[in-house]
Amino acid sequence: MPNSAEHLDWEDLRYFAAVCDGGSIAAAARALAVNHSTVLRRLDSLERTLGVRLFERFQTGYVMTPAGETLRERMGPLAEQVAAAQRAVEGRDTALSGEIRITTTDTLARSMLLPALARFRRLHPDVRLHLVVNNAFLNLNRREADVALRPSNTPPETLVGRRLGTMHSAIFGAPAYLKAARDRGIAPDHWAEHDWVGLDDSLAHLAQARWLADNVPEQRIALRADSLLAMADAVREGMGLAPLLLHLAGNDRHLRQLAPPDPGFDTGLWLLTHRDLKDTARIRALLDFLYHELRTFFPSDVH
Question: Which of 30, 71, 200, 261 could cross-link 170 (Cys pair, CB 3.0–4.6 Å)?
Answer without folding.
Answer: 261
